[in-house]
Amino acid sequence: MPAPPPEKPYPKNAELVDLVQPDKITVGATPLIDVIGKRRSRRRFTEAPLTLEELSFLLWSTQGVQETDPNGVKILKTVPSAGARHSFETYLVVNRVNGVKPGLYRYLSLKHKLHFISGGRGLNENIAVACNNQRFIKDASVIFVWTTIPYRTEWRYHLIAPKLIAIDAGHMCQNLYLAAESIKAGTCAIGAYNQDMVDHLLGVDGVNELAIYVAPVGKYTVNYVSYA
């Protein structure tokens, strides 16, 4: 069987948002030893927005493409993945990001751009409700929602694919934790959500593509400490 494509297609007339290119990013220079020492799960966010450069950095840190082969079968990203299969798609509920209108987006890692899917406010509220009404989620500047397309990993690993996808999700989200801390922002990984509700909000079928992880990101209150 031919290898599945490494990224979902998008409409030719799609509205795209240019991100800051990786070689132009200047944020995130905090020493790694300091970032690891400060890493916490943050559940209280201020109203400060993220900049476009900060969002670009977070996206590149979690799913940025470093190298592709001519056949498009193997892609090296900033996070490890079993067999370089990278089964994930990154969706964003943008609430407060300078220069980016609120709405639902998908990250196009091969182009390092955002694909605008739908607009309007209130998406952050809907995601919070879908995440078992964890109210702090709605206060985030941006909410990462990762889906997996299982066949990308099943194509090579068959029955052990679910385990590998779960491991890969951990790699990816840990990069978000560290990248967020390096820009004085924070996140809290969310696994407790209503599967059908989140899938519906993203417009995925829940079978060939389904939500697997949620992570709100925002500038956090300095004097708040979480022990997770």
Written overview of the protein:
- There is one protein chain.
- With 228 residues, the protein is an alpha+beta fold.
- It has a single domain (16-219), classed as NADH Oxidase, CATH 3.40.109.10.
- Helices cover 28% and strands 22% of the residues.
- The protein has six helices and nine strands.
- The protein has helices at 32-38, 52-63, 123-130, 151-157, 161-182, 195-202, and strands spanning 15-18, 65-68, 75-77, 88-94, 103-108, 113-119, 142-148, 185-187, 210-219.
- The strands form two sheets. A seven-stranded antiparallel β-sheet has the order 1-6-5-4-7-9-8. Strands 2-3 form a two-stranded antiparallel ribbon.
- The N and C termini lie far apart (43 Å).
The beta-strand count equals 9
- Overall pLDDT, averaged? 94
Evaluate the radius of gyration: 17 Å
Strand content: 15-25%
Structural class: alpha+beta
Please state the second-level CATH architecture.
3-Layer(aba) Sandwich
Largest sheet entry: 7 strands, antiparallel
| Count of separate DSSP helical elements | 6
Strand order of the largest sheet: 1-6-5-4-7-9-8
Estimated helix fraction: 25-40%
Shape: globular
Give the low-confidence spans: none
Number of spatially distinct domains: 1
Distance between the termini: 43 Å
